[in-house]
Amino acid sequence: MHEEIQEESKACLLPPLLLQPLVENAVKHGIAVFPKAGMCAWPCSGRNGRLAILVENSWDPEAPPRRSGAWG
User: Rounded to a whole number, what is the distance in angstroms from the first to the last CA of the chain?
Assistant: First the structure.
């Protein structure tokens, strides 16, 4: 996990659990397929009272598609 949190963005408030499903998906559908390691990052920046958060993860373009749940 790698955080890049701009100092100005630390004053911004977020609803509880807003980022949890995004980071969970980045792990489950992105870096979980790597046998040793993968990268999940979320750079945050704030300007004029607005917050921008990007959740990104490494992925293997050659990995087969994963099926999960009843909808596959």
Answer: 28
User: CA–CA separation, 16 vs 62, rounded Å?
Assistant: 35
pTM greater than 0.70 (yes/no): no
How many CB atoms within 10 Å of residue 57?
21
Query: Where is average pLDDT lowest: 39-43, 49-53, 58-62?
Result: 58-62
What are the angstrom distances between the C-alpha of 30 and each of 9, 67, 72? 26, 13, 16
Query: Given CA atoms 27, 28, 33, 35 in this order, what sign does their dihedral have?
Result: positive
Contact between residue 51 and residue 9 where contact means Cβ atoms under 8 Å apart: yes
22-48 pLDDT per residue, tens: 888 888 877 877 777 788 888 888 888
